[in-house]
Design brief:
The structure is a single chain. The protein is of the alpha/beta class and about 220 residues long. The chain folds into 2 domains: about 60 residues, no CATH class; about 150 residues, 3-Layer(aba) Sandwich (Rossmann fold), CATH 3.40.50.360. The protein is about 40% helix and about 20% strand. It is built from 6 helices and 8 strands. The strands form 2 sheets. Strands 3, 4, 5, 6, 7 and 8 form a 6-stranded mixed β-sheet that branches. Strands 1-2 form a two-stranded antiparallel ribbon. Helix 3 links the parallel strand 3 and strand 4. Helix 3 runs parallel beside helix 6 and helix 4 packs parallel to helix 5. The longest helix has 26 residues.
């Protein structure tokens, strides 16, 4: 008896589509094949229409990993650099500083992270100045991260607001934000040994890794 498993490759618009139907008799297999093929073609058509891509272009896009860049300004104790390195390993991302990056360069990437320590309630001026120089984009994905002496949901929202507004005004879409504590010896704190010594610690970096994993899982 011929079963539907003998039919594994179909073509649509002269391009191959992968299709496998559970082994059945030819009568039931024909029904299964017809039902699933219609569903497959409708789904394929909808995806192509939404993105304006051919089958080959869509396949290439879905097989290509997200290309990521982290722009990091890490001062004093390299707190934010430590976080960036963990994220970069997960995302297979390049890490660059604002001083050594052409503002046009981010256009070669699908996802861009912007990170620095927090000084007086906002990211370091070097990163904010870099954001001012960025060219206009159209809905490019970005994320924001930082290290700070004090943290919390409201603190993150306030600390990131200046950079967030600058990036959104340039056309970036902020997909997520991250903040953890960092060792701080600014101003008078240095006379008392600083605060948050040893931060970011192993747990902080684990959270940074999980944050990056989530970004990677939602890359499409």
């Amino acid at each position: 008896m011929i079963t539907s498993n003998t039919i594994k490759h179909l073509h649509y618009n002269n391009e191959p589509l992968e299709f496998v139907c559970d082994a059945m008799t030819i009568d039931l297999g024909t029904y299964c094949l017809k039902h699933k093929l219609i569903s497959t073609l409708e789904s394929t058509n909808n995806r192509f229409r939404r993105k304006g891509l051919s089958v080959s272009e869509m396949n290439a896009k879905e097989m290509s990993p997200l290309k990521s860049l982290l722009i990091v300004y890490s001062y004093h104790h390299n707190n934010t650099q430590k976080v960036a390195e963990v994220m970069a390993r997960v995302l297979d991302a390049d890490i660059k500083t604002p001083q050594n990056t052409n503002p046009e360069e981010h256009q070669n990437y699908d996802l861009v992270g912007f990170g620095a320590g927090i000084d007086s309630g906002k990211h370091y001026r070097e990163l904010l100045d870099f954001a001012d120089k960025l060219p206009q984009v159209n809905n490019k994905k970005a994320f924001i991260f930082s290290t700070a002496g004090l943290t919390g949901e409201k603190k993150l929202a306030k600390d990131h607001s200046t950079l967030r507004e600058k990036l959104e005004s340039k056309g970036f879409r902020i997909v997520d934000e991250f903040q953890c504590k960092g060792f701080n010896t600014n101003v008078f704190l240095k006379y008392f040994g600083g605060m948050n010594k040893g931060r970011p610690n192993e747990e902080d970096l684990k959270h940074a890794e999980e944050f990056a994993q989530n970004l990677k899982g939602n890359e499409n």
